[in-house]
What does this fold into?
Amino acid sequence: MNAYVGTPTSRVDGRAKVTGAAKYAGEFPADGLVHGFVVEATIPRGRIARLDTSAALQVKGVLDVLTHANRPPLAGNDEAWKDEVAPEKGSPFRPLYDDTIKFNGQPIALVVAEEWETAKFAATLVRVEYEPHGFATDLEGERGSAVEFDKPHEPRGDAAGALARAAVRHEADYVIPTEHHNPMELFATTAVWDGDGKLTVYDKTQGVQNVHKFLCGVFDKKPDDIRVVSPYVGGAFGSGLRPQYQVVLATLGALALKRSVRLVLTRQQMYGLGYRPMTIERVALGAKTDGALDAVTHEAIAVTSRYEDFARNDTGWAEQLYSSPNSRFSHKLVQLDVSTPCDMRAPGAASGVCALECAMDELAVALKLDPVELRLKCYSDRDQSENLPYTSKQLRECYARGADAFGWSKRNPAPRSMRDGKELVGWGMATGVWEALQMPVAVRIVLTSNGHAEVSCAASDIGTGTYTIVAQVAADALGLPIENISVKLADSSLPQAPVEGGSWMAASSAHAVLAAAEEVRKELLSLASKMHRSPLADAELTDTVLVDGTIARTNDNSRAVSIADAMRHGNIERIAKEKLNQFDEDKKHARNTHSAVFAEVKVDEELGVIRVSRIVSAVAAGRILNTKTGRSQVMGGVVWGIGMALHEGTVMDHRFGRIMNPNIAEYHIPVNADVRDIDVIFVDEPDAHINKLGIKGLGEIGVVGVPAAIANAVYHATGKRIRRFPITLDKLLD
Amino acid sequence: MAQASHQMPERIPVNLVVNGTNRDLDLAPWTTLLDALRDHLGMTGTKKGCDHGQCGACTVLVDGRRVNSCLTLAVMKDGAEITTIEGLAEDATLHPLQQAFIDHDAFQCGYCTPGQICSAAGLLAEGHAKDADEIRELMSGNLCRCGAYPNIVAAIQQAMGRP
Amino acid sequence: MNNFHYSRAADVADAIRLLAADPDAKLIAGGTNLIDLMKENVERPSGLIDISRLPLRKLEETADGSLRIGALVPNSDLAYHPLIEQRYPLLASAILAGASAQLRNMASVGGNLMQRTRCAYFYDTATPCNKRNPGSGCSAIDGLNRNHAILGTSPSCIATNPSDMSVALAALGALVHVAGPSGERTIALADFHRLPGDKPHLDTNLGTGEIIIAIELPPLGFAQNYSYLKIRDRLSYAFALVSVAAALELEGNAISQARIALGGVAHKPWRSLEAEAALRGQAATADHFSHAADLLLAGATARAHNGFKIELARRAIVRTLTQAANATPQSQAHKKIA
It folds into this structure.
């Protein structure tokens, strides 16, 4: 079964996307559709003293203005508002629930009108008076009020003592700013009124079943009353893991008006959703003179809201990755008057590993060791935090292959030693690491006698390529050409899937396809084996395979029965099988993906202008299902890393508690001209333990390590160590 | 605020030739070409990514030139020929850029893709991009958050018939 | 967007009449900046007067060797026009350094001159801003001012002008032809944009009811020794932190004429006649360029976050003048800085 898996198969949804046929959440038509527009709070904390909607209501075409005072009922208990990704601690935000203002940009009214422009105009006529309260939005200013999140892992050994005794030590703060996902698609929901209190909700989300359960809870609906659909998602990167407020408001509007409502947030309003929290990462490393690490400590201090404690694993990577007998880790939170942060591509790792890998580079400089050499000195074949072997770990090979492709051996270790005319040339490297997670997923396969199969599952494809890999795995498992496979995803009425995130969907969905395909094969065998003089009469299921439109003996494909014949014999037109795949729990192994990232920057010596001229990313992530889309995913992660290193940062004026670059003109993400050569190498990493196909997932690993590799390259080029991201040119001028 | 400002603006008849088809619309003066296409004509292939000319997702060709439809008032384009992503393919045959985007995996989520392709069509017609650097620069008005830029450049090079 | 009425001007005189009839209306051509600001509720005109179809799209060489550019010529057409590429490549380069290909296709020359600042407080209607709401105060002076002006500021406003094209036009000594209720007049580009003073809500000296009809470039185009260098936070499609337009006339290695204009540092394209005079007759050397930079930046004042601009501008001036002197103008596509 290997015609498609592992090949550079083009995206099966490619044609829909290049012709404009692919429909996203805010694009589904409905009879009598009306449009919403959100009015936002302009203060960070307080309460609404007065909300005057009369002028807005006078505008011709305005149907209603919903506020906390006149809205239909919403659930009053936190449990209903806690979606499957919600932080454990806290009380999720409830839009239009009451008069409390918790953050700037909070929705406080929903104008609904016949046309979008009318709603947008009328929204400017809603008059608000506030009773403002004192507030704080500055993490660095409030650093002193940081509180330990949860219980930290038990320290190993005596980190403080080992640091004090270390022959060479390095300790510094690295500051990662708040970053916003800025998917290209605006957050949008089209809530289609199906009559009788029933709704079909087209939502921009990474998890239709998460949204479905959430809406049923929030609006006290039965599961059959609401269906959530999201066939195409225009990027999300974590911002669509939790149900966002627009899905609540669109649904609220539809229930209030008994009409279909579309609500599309503006780019500016999306800065009131989640974000990667600003974090101060304090890393200390102590080493022996030969480079062996003796102590690692990592303390993260991150932003959260006042109403939920959001924290991700920033420090665990330092705990796990390198061999060190002494270590201590802590994660602290500062509650501020902002919205709750959320997962953003490689949450925790993108920030935490950035700090760790910059610190490792600084340690290498102090030790006068090559940065790759240092990492090999500290290389660990076991997960240091759990003291477990990995299911597979080809990081050593990543270093070797990446260094070779990059030409690392030609590096002059001295900063400012390499140049190209007026530009200083810097070469830097870093390690990347992420988890290889897998979740229960169910898949339904409907095989028809003409040799076509429909494969369906509630999972989302947020650009990650789920449609394509599901089709590939199904084509192989069913022995059919990929053209004969149609894939249906992201409908809450389809078989169970978790949110698409954490890089778990490739392995999870692929194995669910295998499991369902096996059920199909079982049924086919049962039909085929009963045929007169069947070549499969005495075959066991394990002896059979689906190939070329037949069910055949594995060891002799000529002894086969065609799918059409088997079904005709059984007098059926189709076989429909659904199977939930669960992975065996394996507590004896650690499961991770790794990468070695090598970056070249060219920095204009006088002007500080930085160009990332090339990046090599060597990735060990088990078996790669699709080398074309997989390469793209890692490449995209690298582009994110370029943004983190050089461009991205949400800027807030703490006098107003307002974000001052809530757009994509001044919140800079890389443009085409910022990105040059990116070489993605997939290191061969057979993995017999992790799962049947040896898959680990690629969504996050691409970004991890990249910002540090670039920062380290900037240091190598200029001799300047910038620990406050992004590295803008002004920081290189003095 | 004066009562007058609460009145809806007058409707203005607007004729657009969209992908070769005459379309007659009655639009408020504030309706952008983007909203006219998406909301009034139901042609959602053209995307709204920022609504402020900062991302390029809304790029269409107006009289053969690439523009941001989000910053274009539809009334001002009365009589103009508009080409959108829906108008690039000839029946079942994809435009060479569309095929090249598939071949080179020049997109992931697909949301910026119609704008990228229309922008690339404008770029080819302009004829100013002769090497990869010039393609990168002249495609920098089209943001791609999935980070497909190198593949986008490769796809455009394929469509240009250049290595 | 606020409610507004729309009218289409039949000719220039009609546009002037329509504008006189409704002083709160605005002219619209490309719309790239005005529509953006209307969507932000920063601009709330009572009406839009569409001038995009007026016959102001010609490039004409005049008898004295100047070039007259119609106000509605799109930025991209201007940048790629053979007369501009050959005679005024500095202008072509500056235009191509700005915005995106799409926006340049839309934006008119006249509209580019009318671009308003990118100051974040000007855009955020929930914060005080003297430019948007006279008398409300300037949030930038003690706020986030990394992108703000270092020259010609006032206690009322430290916003910058975001145009690239205007910087090159300032260096080239362009003239702006305007028409209004009392006839036509000409404004030197240097006098077209204002410093904020105590009236930061006024960006330009365009009179009430006036319309830009053309821009005139004097015969001297500095086609041999010029460069436009734009420094920004990413390599394309971003507003300038600092930009420099430099143009030299050389006799051997001696400078006979020098023009330098700065973008991103002031409320208007910044020139110093003193700096330019100081270069005249001097050898084209780094020392002299550095002295000119000092004169250009005389009186520059830093706020909390924009102090780097002074040193950045100093280095960029020297670099751009060097590029100009060496006849190695900065490419806008090839990002290595010459």
Summary: The helical segments of chain B are 33-40, 96-103, 113-126, 132-138, 149-160.
